[in-house]
């Protein structure tokens, strides 16, 4: 963690060499100023939010009210690390090389009803599918008139505010519809496997790109196999060594491998 954070001092009196913490005073001051202005913020790098590391935040969200929380979420996120390592565009169409300018955005946090958030998939600058963002069954979404109204609201918003202004022709965009039927832009995501396709598959989206119409999908029964039953990104709350040690092994093989890793770390 950067030196500007309020870290707990290590009282270990061992002779191990102390690693000097990095320091980013200008960035840290800007983060503090933004938090002071908005109260609660959500951090995002160019294409990624640290949603996979929300488990480390006491609120189990990516909402931050302190400098420490911002840095802690960013440092603990596999999504952020992957983007910095160049993985953000791995499944995208090849194009001319570009120099990436890294930007950290701090978006003002607003309370939203998860059942009113939707993901829009755009390919070749055309909507190919829309579905609910939160994978739970909601009774009010079963009404066909409600679905038609939501679909029209989202399509109109996209036509009026996004289609001719966004720089890419292929992306996924999350929107929220409030109680007054106002559509609010939430986030953009790359059109690639690293972006959750939710109620679609990317193969299905490719087929839909050949059609003039696009579907509006919702969870239509509590028994739907796609309905959310566990915690998002639960694997990110498990130590990486533990995940790697368990790959392709039964219980006894995993236990032996794990014991060997522990013994090796003790000897190091």
UniProtKB/TrEMBL annotation:
Residue ranges, compositional bias (Acidic residues): 7-19
GO biological process: cell division
Superkingdom, natural source: Eukaryota
Signal peptide (residue range): none
InterPro entries to which the protein is assigned, alphabetical: CDC123
A cellular component term, taken from the record's GO annotations: cytoplasm
Region called Disordered, residue ranges: 1-25
Keyword DNA damage listed: no
Keyword Cell cycle included in the entry's annotation: yes
Pfam families: D123 (PF07065)
Protein keywords: Cell cycle, Cell division
Family per similarity comment: Belongs to the CDC123 family.
Protein name: Cell division cycle protein
Species of the source: Wallemia ichthyophaga (strain EXF-994 / CBS 113033)
Lineage: Eukaryota, Fungi, Dikarya, Basidiomycota, Wallemiomycotina
């Amino acid at each position: 963690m950067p030196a500007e954070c309020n870290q707990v001092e290590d009282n270990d009196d061992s002779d191990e060499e102390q690693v000097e913490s990095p320091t980013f005073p200008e960035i840290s001051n800007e983060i503090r100023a933004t938090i002071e202005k908005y109260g609660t913020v959500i951090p995002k790098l160019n294409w990624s939010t640290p949603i996979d590391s929300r488990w480390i935040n006491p609120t189990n969200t990516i909402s931050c009210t302190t400098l420490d929380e911002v840095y802690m979420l960013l440092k603990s996120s596999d999504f952020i690390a992957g983007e910095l390592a160049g993985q953000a565009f791995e499944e995208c169409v090849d194009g001319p090389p570009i120099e990436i300018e890294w930007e950290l955005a701090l978006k003002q946090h607003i309370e939203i009803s998860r059942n009113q958030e939707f993901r829009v998939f755009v390919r070749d600058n055309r909507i190919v599918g829309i579905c609910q963002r939160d994978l739970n069954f909601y009774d009010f979404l079963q009404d066909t008139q409600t679905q038609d109204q939501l679909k029209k609201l989202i399509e109109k918003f996209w036509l009026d505010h996004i289609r001719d202004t966004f720089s890419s022709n292929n992306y996924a965009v999350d929107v929220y519809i409030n109680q007054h039927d106002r559509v609010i832009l939430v986030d953009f995501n790359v059109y690639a496997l690293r972006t959750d396709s939710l109620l679609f598959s990317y193969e299905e989206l490719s087929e839909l790109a050949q059609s003039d119409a696009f579907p509006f999908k919702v969870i239509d029964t509590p028994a739907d196999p796609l309905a959310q039953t566990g915690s998002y990104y639960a694997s990110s709350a498990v130590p990486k060594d533990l995940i790697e040690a368990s790959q392709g092994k039964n219980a006894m093989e995993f236990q032996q491998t794990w014991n060997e890793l522990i013994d090796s770390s003790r000897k190091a």
